[in-house]
Amino acid sequence: MKAVIIKDGIYWVGGIDWNLRNFHGYLTQRGSTYNAYLIIDEKSTLIDTVKYYLTDEMLERISSVIDPSKIDIVVSNHVEMDHSGALKKIAEIAPAAEIITSPNGEKGLPLHYGPLKLRAARNGEKISLGSRTLEFILTPMVHWPDNMMAYCPEEKILFSNDAFGQHIATCERFEEEYSFDIIMDEAKKYYANIVLPYGAQVKKALEASSTLHIEVIAPSHGIIWRSHVKDIIREYDKWSSNTTDKKALIVYDTMWKSTEMMAIAIYNAFEKKDYFPKLLSLQHNHISDIMTELLTAEYICVGSPTLNNNMLPTVSAFLTYMKGLAPKGRKALAFGSYGWGGQSIKQVEEVLASCGFELLESVKVQYVPTEKALAEITEKIAHAI
Ligand code: FEO
Asked: Which amino acid residue places its CA nearest to atom 1 of ligand 1?
């Protein structure tokens, strides 16, 4: 396990989680990395660590450059355990090292690891590493209250932690070494499933970093940005502005295909009005992939038949996940078939309303929709959008 040179004297020393497929409900098809960075200067500095089970891998990479006991400063940009999991071990190996974190990190880290030699950085505080400087920028709620970034003006590198990350397990470290389309898709999925609730805080972080001259963005997950820095900042600006495309998602589950027939009728309505609709069965699409689509969708239509007086559990799970990620300003529709009770449609509608979405009048059909009923649904929805 070797360190990877990012710039002269600056190394990637993280861990690669090749087999990670679930990140608290987020399907990580491509695994992930936990990026730690080592700066060799008068004060050797480690920025972030890795998940606990990759501690040895990180130490081996550090050891390919420097004896880990010689680390003088550890910067902990984020308390979440995928980045702080090796902190306790580093503190044991390099007991003289000062751990610099945010004021909320100073509160949160001991609640995870017990007493540590911590110092809280102020927003905008600069420290000298020798020939280089690190400036700390507090970015609370991107993604926890304790998040901060560290900027090195001499190298024009922003160590951005969770912001600008992607869940990709790879030996390649830079965009030009990997498929750019995949990097952007994964960056989008990461934003939709991790960062989405914090758009206002992202705006503030973008504003704070807009005065910096950034040549490299070194996030805490995935690929390092150096050829497309402006592109990913522009996308973050777009995503945090809640800008949508002329796109409609029809998300549903079905028991005897009746709700699916209705979903297709609704799809036809959007197609008629020149939208780009997507038909997403919850039997075949992961909720985290649906969220990626929702990031830029104007409409979200959710369908469920009624089972034992309730919506189907798959639909309920999707709605709970979506509500937590708090997309804003969408237009929505509840639909579904039913046998006798028909409670599911109202239940779906209530969740969509509680998200603050603008609702179209819901559509329901008893048992199996006829051709005529489906045509009427298409007409009704096409008229309403
Ligand atoms: Fe990658 Fe919020 O941790």
From this structure: 162
Q: How far is the CA of 304 from the centre of ligand 1 (A)?
A: 33
pLDDT in tens, 31-53: 999 999 999 999 999 999 999 99
Which of the residues are catalytic? 24, 78, 80, 82, 143, 162, 190, 221
Closest CA to 328 of 236, 258, 240: 240
Domain co-membership, 360 together with 272: yes
Q: Is 80 in the pocket of ligand 1 (CB under 6 A)?
A: yes
148 and 18 both lie in a single domain: yes
143 lines ligand 1 (CB under 6 A): yes
Which stretches of the chain are DSSP H helices?
A: 55-63, 81-84, 87-93, 103-113, 180-190, 199-209, 229-240, 258-272, 287-294, 313-325, 343-354, 371-384
Query: d(Cα 370, Cα 368) in Å, to the nearest integer?
Result: 6
**Of 208, 240, 272, which marks where a domain is finished?**
240
Question: Could you tell me the distance, in angstroms and rounded to a whole number, from the CA of residue 360 to the centre of ligand 1?
Answer: 36
- Structural domain span for residue 110: 4-240
Same domain, 71 and 217: yes
189 lines ligand 1 (CB under 6 A): no
Q: Tens of pLDDT along 103-122? A: 999 999 999 999 999 999 99
Instruction: Please indicate, yes or no, whether residues 232 and 378 belong to a single structural domain of this protein.
Output: no
The answer to whether 321 and 226 are in contact (CB under 8 A) is no
Measured between alpha carbons, how far is 252 from 224 in angstroms, rounded to an integer? 37
Whole-prediction pTM: 0.95
How far does the centroid of ligand 1 lie from the alpha carbon of residue 194, in Å?
A: 8
